[in-house]
Design goal:
Layout (H helix, E strand, L loop, with lengths): L1 E5 L5 H9 L5 E5 L8 H7 L12 H11 L2 E4 L10 E4 L14 H13 L5 E4 L7 H14 L8 E5 L8 H7 L2 E5 L2 H11 L7 E5 H32 L3 H8 L29 H15 L7 H27 L8 E5 L14 H11 L3 E5 L12 E2 L2 H5 L4 E4 L4 H4 L3 H7 L4 E4 L6 H6 L3 E4 L6
Parallel strand pairs: 1-2, 1-4, 2-3, 4-5, 5-6, 7-8, 9-10, 9-12, 10-11, 12-13, 13-14
Antiparallel strand pairs: 6-7
Helix pairs in contact: 1-3, 4-5, 8-10, 8-11, 10-11, 11-12
Amino acid sequence: MRIVVFGMGYVGIPAAALFADVPGFHVTGVQRRSKRSGWKIDALNQGENPIGGDEPGLAELLKRVHGKGSFSVTDDTNVVKEADAVLIDVQTPTEADHRPRYESLKAVSRQVGELMRPGTLICIESTVAPGTTQHVVRPILEEASGLKAGRDFSLAFAYERVMVGRLLYNITDLPRIVGGIDENSTRRAMELYSHIVKAELHATDALTAEVAKTVENTYRDVNIAFANEVALICESLGIDAYRVRELVNTLPNLPEDPAKNPVRNMHVPGSGVGGHCLPKDSWLLKYGLDTYGRFPVDPKVIVASRELNDWMPVHTVELLEEELDKKGISLTEAKIVVLGLAFLPDSDDTRNTPTYTMDRVLRERGADVVIHDTLVEADEGVENLTNDLWGALEGADGVLLSTAHNEYREIDLSRLRKVMRTPVLIDGRNLWVAKNAEKAGFSYRCIGKGTS
């Protein structure tokens, strides 16, 4: 079987490599030779892993399929002509008005439609608003190819559940939801994924699968927002939200009837939510509802949760401002260091990181801002990034912890106090112990912890 995968990112690379490891399969990745990502073509064609951070098994898998000759990458879309199946794994971000940006999805769909042969299976893995497979992708494929979906080719939405740090595991060991535009499309896609997914495959229709994907991430976003709101309540009351969380989560299930006493799993609050999915999937769900719903629904809880999570980085800056004000220092005359650019600990993934918001707000309020991250070499979103931790901290008036890298957990607070000009420490991830920070001489604030 010959498979083509569009998009060599956090989804496309591990998916392509896993399929390329199946006996008898050959996979070709398609990646634009853009300034930002074109280098991945040469790296992957040399068997190298372009994804930074700790990704168990991925580097070894890429070396293996490179050695077998079953995986290669190109910028030439003509490889679609020989494909039995095409996976589309391009980015689908949202605009400032929360509407989806489908430029890449539409362009790739048109390229595939113009080149594919009858009988091809097309699988959309990119997260999209409900209704997109049927109302956006299908018409483009049919118009470009002159073929009819469901009769001349198959089309399905089969969403990923990848997470940085466990990309391979999440693809192979978590259940997969597969929804076709018709029964045959679903059947063919189920058969394809059965080669790499060891967990259960769940068959459904494309719209239900699209809703399930966006709801899955919206559920987590809403739960994080609840934890953040509790954190704000605890800050106001002068108590510790993390202790409250511990106590709430002691409620056990009744094994004989768990539905009557469901276990509590209060999430962890923090200084913001990042990643490719959570900051946008609530908006994709709402967009699908607004565009294709049969009657109007106002998802108040979902929207308010998303807005609260977006505001948490601002709140973190405001905690800093409060502590600086106590020392008679204005942000306009302060040097502020933000620790962590990646959105996830011990990763180099900066997509939608809350650090972007902190940086913007601090600069708007006049601060001199330096961002440190050892794992991120460069990023288009910031110009003030450094990999030199102690050089950045020298002469700082305040430190904001945005990412819970293990490197920061082990930081020497006594040394930190000596190199800083003003000892203000704002902990956005509950990484440090308050009494240790205060003993070292810091004015210390943590998200979710009130002051006496």
